[in-house]
Amino acid sequence: MNRNNFNNNSYDNGYDNYNNNYNGYNGYGVNTYNASGVTLADFSRRVYGWMAGGLSVTFVLAFLIQSVLYSNPMLLAQFFPVYIGSIILELIMVIALGFFVYKLPSTVSLILFLVYSVCNGINLAPTLMLAGADKAIWAFAATALLFGAFSIYGIVTKRDLTKLRPILLIGLFVLIIFAVLGMFFRMPAMDLGISLLGIIIFVGFTAYDTQKIKRGYEYFSGDGEMLKKASINIALELYLDFINLFLYILRLFARNR
After folding, report:
1. For the chain, what is the mean pLDDT?
2. Measured between alpha carbons, how far is 52 from 48 in angstroms, rounded to an integer?
3. Half-sphere exposure of 222 (CA within 13 A, CB side)
4. With 60 as the cut, is the pLDDT of residue 12 above it?
5. Range of the domain at 32
6. Strand (E) positions, the chain?
7. Count of domains forming the chain
């Protein structure tokens, strides 16, 4: 479920690559932090605000849909085309955001992010139904704790976490390979290993992407519009970290089902 959330576009085409594309921008850096009138605290609140808004849309919609489907199993047949359509639309949204978020108007990027959140909520609903609402709630709580802890670590640490990027991407590639193999070879040990590896990788991405908040602010602090776009892009990456972390924790909690 939601394998498309293993999205290389966000990680490969976000802030890191953007630095290479916009080296022509002058005056956006250490000497002009307040040129846009936006403080680092404002920028951070904006990032976490977008992320929280997207997660709220996704999980409220997912829980509502799974509740309806659980109570009315006959609706599953009618839901299936909607599910497939949302997967296709979700892929289009994440590609558009991954590649064009800095070229689109910030309002358009935000709308795409919200549409993506809606699609993800639709796609997540069957997973919640299969796992059980009780396990989903516990998984959400555990995800919030882990995400919060490693996001705080990404903020307070003095270490440069950009060095983690190649390791995390290799881990992500290995995870995808094992996930594909797991579709054909159902082994409890492999399933447990995939869940634990997924959790480790996405707590790493959480810390790494959190550190982009300060870096993005420093880079774009001279331009208010670019700061809006950067906040949406970083919010999307943190959103994806939370969703994938949730899915692997849920997989761990509900592997007997």
Report:
1. 82
2. 6
3. 9
4. no
5. 3-253
6. none
7. 1
CA distances from 19 to 23, 108, 233 (A): 6, 22, 13
Q: Which residues of 46-78 are buried (b: 16+ CB within 10 A; e: fewer)?
A: bbbebbebbbebbbebbbebbeebeeeeeeeee
CA 152 – CA 138 distance, rounded (Å): 21
What's the residue count for the chain?
Answer: 257
Compute φ and ψ for 110, nearest 5 degrees.
Answer: -65, -40
- Please state, in angstroms and rounded to a whole number, the distance separating the CA atoms of residues 18 and 196: 31
pLDDT at 11: 36
Tell me the CA distances in angstroms from 135 to 85, 101, 157, 250, 257, one per residue in order.
27, 35, 32, 7, 10
**Which of 232, 3, 2, 214 has the alpha carbon at shortest distance from 106?**
232
Q: What is the pTM of this model?
A: 0.82
The DSSP call for residue 133 is H
Residue 94: exposure state from Cβ atoms within 10 A (0-12, 13-18, ≥19)? buried
